[in-house]
Write a structure and sequence with these properties.
alpha/beta; Rossmann fold; Hypothetical protein af1432; five-stranded parallel β-sheet; 60% helix; phosphoprotein; CheY-like_superfamily; Sig_transdc_resp-reg_receiver
Length: 342
Amino acid sequence: MLLVENDFSTRKMISLFLNHNGYEVFEAENGEEALNIVEVNGFPEVVITDIEMPLMDGITLIKKLREKKASSIIFTMTAYSDPETMKDAALAGADDFISKPIDFKLISMLLDMALKAKEFHTEKAKTEYYLKLENEYSGEAIAELKDRNKTLANDLLKKIYRLSEYRDDETHEHTLRVGLISEKIARSSGLENEETYLLKLSAPLHDLGKVGIADAILLKPGKLTSTEFDMMKSHTVIGYEILKDSTSDVLKMAANIALTHHERWNGSGYPNALKSSEIPIEGLIVGIADSFDAIVSERPYKKAKPLGYGFEEIKATSGILYSPLLVDAFFKEKEEISKIYQ
């Protein structure tokens, strides 16, 4: 384990606690020193790093570790609680955060949870690295690569699906259902076959950005605080940042969906309070599918509602939260959509 903290007393206090709990700890007081330790000793299973440090801050350190293909589980440790700082850390490649002042019981719980989910964190780091590589290739290089390995795009897409579903089994079922419902709405609304097919492939990635949301927030059984909800809402932007600038039509559409599936017809959604025709049709369609499935499915914070209740909720908010034309298309497929839940 690598502990990066510029305050000597804080670093020693945490290091003693970790040693007492059986962890071997390497200590560094800034990002540069941490990278030197990694060069000599290799990547640790876990990195705990402060954000504000001299010479090299924590976010820069995280970026450099991810550039080196580090699959380490990375925690940021900071007194900051603003969503922007958390978003920057998540986009850099952090997996979770630890708030100051330090709660040692919470550290034990987070480490235990993270190490149990080591495979998830390894897959997450690998996928984000290969996504970055794909975005850096020129169009000519992508074409050449496809000639040599035509299955690359499909394999990569499957890995991204797996990443977005990795938190729990319910997330896996949710992404499948949202993709199926979105396809049915698209066909019923008269979308071209090619656009419908792209939407079917793209829709399951709508919540990809949740890989950047802390488990303590994502899996919280109770109501989120306003600060926690702001952090949760940032999953739209995180998903967009991961998927944008791709040469793939599927990932381009998925980026738009990730960013806009929580926008609402009357402008009450997030992150940009878009309304009506300002919202791309793929975001409008997935917004209906995602909301319906959320209503009729069990979540950590609520029990599932009956299908009939879900249909009534969508109907009641047509023209308020959702496009009236797309709600009509949704209801034309009511029987087929109901079969998905049988």
